[in-house]
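The authors assume throughout that readers already know how a fold can be written as discrete tokens. In essence, backbone conformation is discretised, so a fold becomes a row of integers matching the chain in length. A single example would do more here than another paragraph of explanation. For illustration, here is how one protein appears when written out as sequence plus structure tokens:

…
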Amino acid sequence: MKYTFGLRGHDIGNNFDEMCEKAKAAGVKKLQFALAKTVNDVNFDEVGYDEKLSQEINAKLAENDLHVSVLGCYICPIHPDEEVLKSQLKRFENFLYYAKDFGADVIGTETGVAETLEKTHSEENYQFFLNNMRPIIKKAEELGVIVGIEPVYTSTIWSPQVMRRMLDDVKSDNLKVILDISNMTHAPTRHMQCDIINDSFDLFGEEIVAVHLKDFTFDEDNRKSFTVAGTGELMTELIFDRLEGLSHTPEIILDETKLELYEDSLISLSEILD
């Protein structure tokens, strides 16, 4: 497979215009586009979905040859405050329309953190999350938009097995997976990385629509930090070996990678892929 690596928009520039200018200069073609973090002079909770604004943003992206691989709308779909939760879910629903306008491959979110890890991983919380997401996925089906769930060890959907369960419970062609092995590899699961990778591809490989390559190291106190792609503890070669077995090529985003490290990351990855 031939891979094109994207970056997060807010890792490229401090605002939308700067991001477009720098991305074009650096040859970046694909984005994880966290709309509210990049078009940061707009309050999207107040504006909601604005068709004219959407068209203006889309035109600027096209002018700079930028494709939205992932539209980021990282909400907390289990927020305990009813009004805040309602606002969060409404934001995601509004962003479905932006995703459609931009031709985004997927609109992504994580799945929320409760007061404790035990409660976050509880059956009650899982069912609460599922009930909150079902209307969103139904709306995504109506619009022809793909919703991507990113499993994270500290969140509601926290393992390959729980992700598979959600896919089975929802049963929607518009629900897919954003795979970030780093986010499932925390200190308690550090020794399980190989299993996490293989389980992910075995359980839902064909439903992976995007991959975050977010390399990391742990220090002697098991504190995690991020590093240039291909230079840390992330089993990058195994991930690409498993990607080769898929019938499609997911979008790949170099997460937690600033623009100034983009070239270094491409060099490291080319050495692994050669």
Observations:
- The first strand starts at residue 5 and ends at 8.
- The first helix runs from residue 16 to 26.
- The mean pLDDT is 96.
